[in-house]
Amino acid sequence: MLGVAAIVGVYQYGRAINHDYPGRTFSVEGTADIETPQNLGVFTATVTTEGQQEAGPLQEQNTQKMNAMIAAFKEKGIEAKDLKTLNYNVNPRYDTVACAPGSTCPPPKISGYSVTQSLEVRVRALDQVGTLLALATEKGATSVSNINFVPD
């Protein structure tokens, strides 16, 4: 009896095992290194204008600085297609009053505005990058950042 049980057990186990084999597969894996010339310089020039006045005059001042910078870039050979406004922001600045603990504080009051405009500059003649960075600050840029060299 024990022998028959062993034979039946082995038979059932053999049927339970999945004998299906996966279909044929073909795998390829590879890597490559490609060197491309870094023939384009890209940077961001930002003009920020702040004041304790209405937003309109600050926007005008900011626009004049940005337009002067753009005109200077164009004089140096930068084409209009290589100049792109990234953002333009007008933000209020607030004065707050220190309050005694447990008292009601007055709401903050607008004390002025901050106008910020950023311009992306793409430089195709890499020997001009340093000159253009200096030119940006001469013409009113308060920040020059994100300097990258990329393929065209």
Share in helix: 25-40%
* Derived structural class: alpha+beta
- Coarse morphology: flat
Number of strands: 4
Low-confidence stretches: none
Main sheet, how many strands, which sense, barrel?
Answer: 4 strands, antiparallel
Strand content: 25-35%
Terminal-residue CA separation: 83 Å
Can you give the mean pLDDT?
88
Biggest sheet: strand arrangement: 2-3-1-4
Q: State the order of secondary-structure elements, H for helix, E for strand.
A: HEHEEHE
Spatial extent as radius of gyration: 34 Å
Question: Number of DSSP helices?
Answer: 3
Characteristics:
152 residues, alpha+beta
Explain what this protein looks like in three dimensions.
This protein has helices at residues 2-16, 55-75, 129-138, and strands spanning 40-51, 83-95, 109-123, 143-150. The protein has a four-stranded antiparallel sheet with strand order 2-3-1-4. With 152 residues, the chain is an alpha+beta fold. It is built from three helices and four strands. The termini are far apart.
